[in-house]
Amino acid sequence: MSEYDHEPVRGLPGELPEGEHIIWQGGTDWKAMAFSALHIRFALVYFLVIVATALFRGDWGTAMAVTALGSVTVGLFILFAWGVSRTTVYTLTNRRLVLRIGVALNKCINLPLNELESANLKQLADGSGNIVLTLKGMPRLGYLMLWPHARSLRFVRPQPMLRAVPDAQKVSALLFKATQEVQPIAPRQQAKRERNEDIPLGGLPV
């Protein structure tokens, strides 16, 4: 039995209301999470530089100590990324986007599509990607409550995001279509989108 066995619908806090249905459901890729959110490359380079410097000076004790510390640190990053991947469920319905997040304390965050101002895709090299969301008049969401499902270093007005989503291009297209049903895109913006010009995913002003 897991902590999520109480969910009436996987990834959701309750049964879907009449007229609402799931369009897409997915999570994060732990490898992409480790590299894009936890910046594990920088940690590896940091420890390698220190070890190389210590070896150059002939300080084997420091080199071994830093190697051990670096291994533990990187291991913890990987373990955390795996935990985030295991516990995260993103759900897109025809009315809202739900983020079920939290490794130690799980929570569900409901983002109505009619409160979505923009959603912008940043594709990663492996085909996964981050979809950053900008909300309109909803109350502010705490950065620490959202992290790592939040745009980095946006503390004043945190922006939730779908982090390290596999096949992000497909997910962004589904999100655009669902948002368009709730907030019809203006003809002028539709023309720009068809010309592949850069506009917010939701077709709404930023």
Question: Describe it for me?
Answer:
The protein folds into two domains: 22-28 and 88-181, Roll (PH-domain like); 32-84. Helices cover 38% and strands 20% of the residues. The chain has six helices and seven strands, in the order βαααβββββαβαα. The protein has helices spanning 30-36, 40-56, 60-87, 143-146, 168-182, 187-194, and strands spanning 22-26, 89-93, 96-101, 107-112, 116-123, 129-135, 161-165. The strands form two sheets. The protein has a four-stranded antiparallel sheet. Helix 1 crosses helix 3 (60-87) and helix 2 (40-56) packs antiparallel against helix 3 (60-87). Residues 186-199 and 201-206 have low confidence and may be disordered.
Quick overview of this protein structure:
The protein is an alpha+beta fold and 206 residues long. Helix content is 38%, strand content 20%.
What is the CA–CA distance across the termini? 44 Å
* Major β-sheet profile: 4 strands, antiparallel
| Average pLDDT taken over every residue | 83
How many helical elements?
A: 6
How would you name the CATH homologous superfamily of the largest domain?
Answer: Pleckstrin-homology domain (PH domain)/Phosphotyrosine-binding domain (PTB)
Low-confidence stretches: 186-199, 201-206
Roughly what fraction of the amino acids lie in strands? 15-25%
CA-based shape? elongated
Instruction: State the order of secondary-structure elements, H for helix, E for strand.
Output: EHHHEEEEEHEHH
Which strand order does the major sheet show? Answer: 1-2-3-4
Number of strand elements: 7
CATH class of the largest domain: Mainly Beta
What is the radius of gyration?
20 Å
What is the CATH T-level topology of the largest domain?
PH-domain like
Q: What structural class do the secondary elements suggest?
A: alpha+beta
